[in-house]
Amino acid sequence: MSKKYQVVEGDSRWGLAERFYGDGRLYPVIGGHILLGQMLEIPDVTFRHRVVAGDTKKKLAVHYYHDETMSEVFEIPNGAAQRDLIVGEWLVIPDLANPGQHTVAIGETWEELADRWYGDAHLWRIITIANHMVNQDPQPGQVLIQPRLNRRRTVVAGDTLWNLTKDNYGDNGDGRTLDLMMLVATANHIADWNRIKVGQTVYFPSLD
User: Is 55's pLDDT higher than 80?
Assistant: First the structure.
């Protein structure tokens, strides 16, 4: 979810992007010129980590989750479960420190929840690992934690950034859709809105 932040002396958009997102290049997400004392709305963009020499999956799991056995939480959404980390690559880091909560309804499955929350049913193992329920089914009435990870879509032939934005956030009128499309483009380092590639993964910042 988005958060409020009051600008203090020494703040810059680049510095705030590094603090909240792990990537200073995402500074345009925060908006335009900032002023001392200004209250900012910080959109929820999943934290990024750039792999450096010496990083290991266990080391990152301890750093972000204080548990070396939790590395699959970030391995899975980055396609790194069956390979080594690559120096220089950017990883998205699901947030377990400030998770959402969900009460399981009758008939819900892990795959259904992953598709609803993340736009990708294949990410269901993230939920089971975070809830320490590997090899167990969700039970009606059970309260689960919801790891925070931006919804995603894999671009297919015929997709446009405009239509993907409307599909994710709903039809809010052309003006609002344009604003949201600019936010999505910025969060994904898309310089030309008319040029998205088939197979590309597009992440959608959370606004609720």
Answer: yes
